[in-house]
Structure formats: C-alpha cells, structure tokens
Amino acid sequence: MLNATYIVLIPLLPLAAFLLLGLFGRKYFKNSSGIIATILLLAATVLAMYTAYGYFFEYGKVNGIYEKLVPLKYTWLQFSEGVSIDMGVLLDPITCMMLLVITFVSLMVHIYSLAYMKGEKRFATYYSFLGLFTFSMLALVLSSNIFQIYIFWELVGVSSFLLIGFYYDKPSAVAACKKAFIVTRFADLGFLIGILMLSFYAGTLDFNTLVERLTSPGSAELNTALSSSFMGISALTWAMILVFMGAAGKSAMFPLQIWLPDAMEGPTPVSALIHAATMVVAGVFLVARLFPVFALSAPEALQLVAYVGAISALLAAIIACTQTDIKRILAFSTISQIGYMMFALGVSKYGGESGLGYTASMFHLFTHAMFKALLFLGAGSVIHFIHSNEMKDMGGLRKYLPVTHITFLIACLAIAGIPPFAGFFSKEEILSAAYQNNIIIYWIGLFTSGLTAFYMFRLYFGIFWSKAPSLKERAGGEAHAHGEGGFAMLLPLILLGIGAAAAGFIPFGNFVSSDGTPLESPFHLNMTIAPVAFGLIGIFFAMWLYKKQNNKPDKIAASINGLYKAAWNKFYFDELYLFVTKKILFNLVARPAAWIDKNVVDGLVNATGNTTMFISKKIKGMQSGKVQQYAAYFLVAAIAMAVLFIYWWK
Amino acid sequence: MMQPGLYHILFISTALFFIGVFGFFTRRNLITMLMSVELILNSVNLNFIAFNKYLWADKLDGLFFTIFIIAIAAAEAAVAIAIIINLYRSHHSIDVDNAEEMKY
Q1: Sign of the C-alpha dihedral, residues B74, B78, B83, B85?
Q2: pTM, whole model, 2 decimals?
Q3: What is the pLDDT of residues A1-42, one digit of tens each?
C-alpha cells in the first residue's frame, strides 16, 4: 500500500488534460480534445477504483476500524513549529467514496459532451476547463491539510466560474458566473476566519492532528477553545459556525442559495457535473470531514447545520413546484437534496449506532450523484432535441426519446424514494436517523419527500406525457426531429441508470461511518412505510394534475395565489440581495469609498503636481536670456561668498 | 607733495573695477562690454602690483602674475572679437539685447 504515488496521479491526469488542451488545444487538438480528455479521465477512473478497492478491501481496515491514512505528505510552507501548510494525501472512507463518485460522474460527463458539445467552436477550451474542475475537486477530497482544502476549494470555485460563463457573449451567463463566484467567495471569508481560529486553538493545520486535539476529552487545546467565549458561545463553536458558513455557500444552503439556479446558464453537462453531483457536495464533504469536532465539541453548531439543511430542503422543494424551466427545477431539487444531506449530518451523533445520520448522509450523497447527474444529462438530451429549456415547449416526448424517457423515469423514481431504486434506501436511512434524534426535522423531511415526488413527477409528466403542440409549433418553430442523439449521449444515461437502480443495494454502513467502525444498516420495515406513502401520494397527485393537459393546476395555483406567487418568485431572495447590495452596500460603503479615492487620494497626488508646476513657473523667470542679468547674479554671489569666507568662516 | 601710499592705489583700482563692472552691466554694444572687461582686468593688475611693491618688496610674484593676466587678457580679447563677429553674422547687430535665444 505504502507505494502510494499512484494516488497522486488521480488528480494529476485531469490537470494534464487541462494544461495540454488549454495551451495547445485550440491549435493542434481541435477535434480530438474530447477523446484525449476522456482517455485521461478513464485512466484516472481506473486508478480511483483501484485505490478505493485497495482501501476498502485490503489495507484500510486496521483492527476492524477504517483508519484515516496519510500515505503522502510534503511540508510546503512552515509558519512555526507546529503550523505548516502541507500538501498531502489523506485516505479515508469518505475520500475513497468521493474519488469514485467524482471520477465516474466526470467520465460520464466527458463522454456525454463528446456528442452534446460537438460543433462548438471552443471545444478544446471546454474540455480543458472540465479537466481543471476535475483536478481541483479530486485534490480537494484528497487534501490532508485544512489550508490545502481551502486552496482547492477556491480553485473549484474558479472552475465553476469559468464553466458557468462559458457562453461569455450571453449577458445572463456573465451575470450568473459573477454572482456564483461572488456569493461563494463571500462565504469563503467565513471559512477562512474559521480556519484561522481552528488553527490558532489547535496549533496545527493538519486534519488528523486538528481533529484529535479538538476532540480528545482532556486536551489542553480543547479546553482553551471552549473556555474563551464571545456573546455566550464558545470560540470553538464560532469557528465551526464560520466553517459551516463556507460550506453553506458552496452547497447553496439557505440563505446563500441564490447562485445555484442562475448557474444553470452554463452548458447542461457542466450543470450535471458541477452543480449536481460534485462541487455542491463539497460543503457536505467538509462538514463530514470535520464531523468529530462538530459532534463532540461544538454540538450547537451541529444544530445550526441541521436546521439550515432542513429549511433549505423545504424551501427549495416549495419553489421547485412552481418553476417552468426544467433546469431550474433540477437546480432547486439539488438544493433540496443537499439540504437532506446536511440535516442528516446535523442530527447525527458520533460513534456506533448513533452515527447513523453520518452514514445516511454519505450514502445519499453517493446515490444522489447518480440520479441527479442522470436527471441533468437526460434534461440535456431533451434540450438538445427541442432546443428550448421551457416546459411549455415540451410534452409527449416519450415517442421521440425512448432511452431518455426510461432512464429519466428511473431517476425520478429514485429521487422520489420508491423501492427498489437507490434513493429509497438512502432517504429511508436519513429519515430514520432524523426520527431518532429530532422529530421536527423528521416531519419536515417527510413532508419534503412528498413535495419532491410531486415536483419531480410534474416535471416528468410535463416533458414526456401531457399533450403537446406539434413539433412544428415548438420553441417558435425551432424544433425539428433529428433523433435522440448519438451513442455518446445515450451510454452515460444507461450507465447512470444502472447506478441509480442498483446503488441502493450497497451495504454502505459497512464502509462509511462516523468513527470508522462498520455499521449494520438497520432496515426497519415500519420506518419505510411513511416515506414511500408520501412519495406515492406525490406521484399520484402529479399524475392527476399533469398527465393529461387540463386546467386543474391553474385552478389550484389561483386558489393559493399568495403562496404561489411568492414561490414562483423564489421567495424574493434575489430581490432582497439586490436591494441590500445596491441600496445599502453601494450607497453607504462603495460610493463614499470611491469619492475618497477620487478626491482625497488622487487629489493629494494632483496637488503635489500642481504645486510643483506653480513653483517652477515662478522660478523660470530667472532664465531671461540676458547675459548681463546672468553676470549680475554672478557678481552678487561672488561678493556673498567673499563675505562669507573672509568674515565668518573660522 | 605726499608720497602715494598703498591705500591710494587700492582706491584707484577699486574705483576702476567698479566702473568696469558698471560698464559691463549697462552697455548695449558688445565691443564696449569687451572694453569694460579689459578695464576690470587692468584694475586687478594694479591691485597685484600695489601689493607686490608695498608688502612683498623683495619678491616678484605679483609682477609675474600681472604679466600672465596681460597675456591672457589679450588672448581673451581675440576670442571675444571672434565670437562677436560670429554673432554679427547671424543677428546682423551687435546689440546684446538681441541675443536672447536662451530665454525660457
């Protein structure tokens, strides 16, 4: 095992793709960039599978507990005796799981984009950005040092910015990528302050050492961190709340969820990769990574995590019921499902049976990656066919897109939590964990799962079933029947469909748990009835309203007009943020600052210049061109010097 | 008649010096300015000879320096005339107020 250098290759192969295609792609690899990137990523996927197999089945389990192994570590910047930024690799059950998820979904997206982005002028640039993203995300999960994770966190944000704004001549795309970057960057401020506080109290930046020092019951660092308090909350809890702020920003949790729906401006495979399966779960991953500290030393922060997750899940589900752009619906669905993952972590305790929430959250992350990526790629297939994102242009597409139809149906059933698909198992575990610890969150989760089934099947029936305008009338006459899209688009759908169907049967608790000891996945039959019942109610309600075209939805919308309008406007969060930034920040902070810069700072510099010019104008009169005047100055000076030297010089 | 003392000769040489300086500052004709310069140089000569005779009677340093100054004055006058002739060729005038090109 300890010859672990091949693990470093896993992120480095996509980095090579980024550099190669970024530097030379436009000129030399115009058409082959997709193949090159896909092959490199295939190699990375194989290596990731080999690593994960080795970890889970060969060397990871030491005395029956999955250890956090650090096979590689390189000290990079040493600040003091214990505090240094190292670049290292940390192997851990969640890391290996994430390696599998990221490489697999990225591979599917790479293959899919071969067909979806064909004919795009900046084909090579697209694949180089995908390579950059995959590299950053893989390096993020492999990080052994909290500052290293911050570096790759920012890099992931940059890649997301580049990919959302890929169609840079669309002003909406440019606005969206700026918004995403600024919101996540603002959240990262909290993350950075949290890192600084944690490293101050623990005296180290290394994950294993930090977690150990801040969780072992008698440690000195823990005592100092808990005893200093500010406004009644201990410093350690503040640090964890700030770190969670970073996680919430990246994972689009309430109230920082505003960037994710707009991020749908990017190409659809990008949405599948970044904003569904991988980047947005980085926040969940971070909370999971620091879970021992949250659970054992800062339980109030964990409460905050739970409630924020639950609120996000519910809010996003309500909004998703009213949206008409299919990608926006899927974006809100993502926010909702990540809310599930967050509150599952939030209600979990550390160790053994009570750590069920942790396992459930990670399991849901795994299955969600499968079915959400599948949903997005399926949506991409539909968009590719219809050339429009709006539900009003769709309907009755099951005749034209058979493979997409079946795989989309599988994904919808998975997300709704219908057995035997993957989502059923993970959602049931989450709700069991919530039931054991926090009944309010349990009921919120249950109600949201009903809403989830409802809006997903509203989407499904709206695309594939309800009667539709003829092909000629769609999207302003733009649509035309050109078949489903090549093999490159269908293969990923099929593979992800298999994943969404089968992933539920993996005994996840044996591999991933809060303290490393295998957890028997408890399958209580009576706990499964409620979620499945709510799911089925949601599905049949959606079927009743949307399978055939009728006016019942409009009547229902009219009857709850206030709530409907608020949900349709995404509860006015964007307007609120715009108000705060424009009216308050710009007017009270930015304008005075700009005034000072222009008038005081520039004014000072200009004044120096003007004074110099004024003095020089007065002095230049001395040079008059008259020789006799010069001679006069000469004489006066000579006399002065004579007086000085004869009478005063001693 | 009183024997001329050192101060009498110094008075004359100072007077001649400042007459020369005044002439240099106020005359417009370049050649007249040159004549004033000669006057200044000669006044300095007188100064040297006076100090030589009255203070260091047994040495000849002042005498030698005076002869140097006479020679140099002659050379300098030749150069100055050459400059004036050149200036006349471009300005067609030997009025010093017309040669103001070096004004700011």
Answers
A1: positive
A2: 0.82
A3: 556 788 888 999 999 999 999 999 888 888 888 999 999 999
Q: What is the pLDDT of residue A420?
A: 85
Q: Which amino acid is at A476?
A: G
Question: What's the N-to-C CA distance of chain B in angstroms?
Answer: 58
CA dist., res. A546 & res. A459, Å (int): 9
What value of ipTM does the predicted structure carry?
A: 0.89
Task: Report if residue B16 sits inside a domain.
Answer: yes
Task: Report the number of distinct structural domains present in chain B.
Answer: 1
Chain B residues within 8 A of A642 when measuring between CB atoms? none
Residues 6+ positions from B99 with CB-CB distance below 8 Å: A625, A627, B87, B91
- Number of Cβ within 10 Å of residue A576's Cβ equals 12
Is A390:A279 a contact under the CB 8 Å cutoff? no
Question: pLDDT averaged over chain A?
Answer: 88
R_g (Cα) of chain A, nearest Å:
30
Whether residue A242 is predicted with pLDDT greater than 80 in this model: the reply is yes
Cβ <8 Å between A623 and B104: yes
Tell which residue, A306, A298, A280, has the closest CA to residue A358. A306
Instruction: Identify the helix (H) or strand (E) that includes residue A531.
Output: helix A525-546
Full residue range of the structural domain in which residue B40 is found: 6-92
B35, part of any domain = yes
Residue A630: closest C-alpha in chain B: B25
Determine the Cα angle at A137 with ends A143 and A487, to 5°.
145
Q: How confident is the model at residue B2 (pLDDT cuts 50, 70, 90)?
A: confident
On whether residue B32 sits in a domain, the answer given is yes
Nearest CB to A627; choose among B26, B96, B104: B96
Contact B20, B37 (CB under 8 A): yes
- Here the CATH number for the domain that contains residue B80 is 1.10.287.3510
Give the one of A625, A628, A635 whose C-beta lies nearest to B102's C-beta: A625
Of A620, A623, A631, the CB nearest to B25: A631
Cα dihedral A278, A280, A285, A287 in deg (nearest 10): 180
Task: With beta carbons less than 8 A apart as the criterion, state whether A346 and A307 touch.
Answer: yes
Looking at the complex, does the CB of residue B24 fall below 8 Å from at least one CB of chain A? yes
Can you state the percent helix, strand and coil of chain A, rounding each to 5? Answer: 75, 5, 20
Per-residue pLDDT of A307-350, as tens digits, reads: 999 999 999 999 999 998 999 999 999 999 999 999 999 999 88
CA A302/CA A297 separation, integer angstroms: 10
What string of H, E and C letters represents the secondary structure of A346-402? HCCCCCHHHHHHHHHHHHHHHHHHHHHHHHHHHHHHHHHHHCCCEHHHCCCHHHCCH
Task: Name the nearest CA neighbour of A517 among A61, A86, A13.
Answer: A61
Q: Which residues pair with A85 in a beta bridge?
A: A77
Residue B39 within any structural domain of the chain: yes
**Contact state of A632 with B25 under an 8 Å Cβ cutoff:** yes
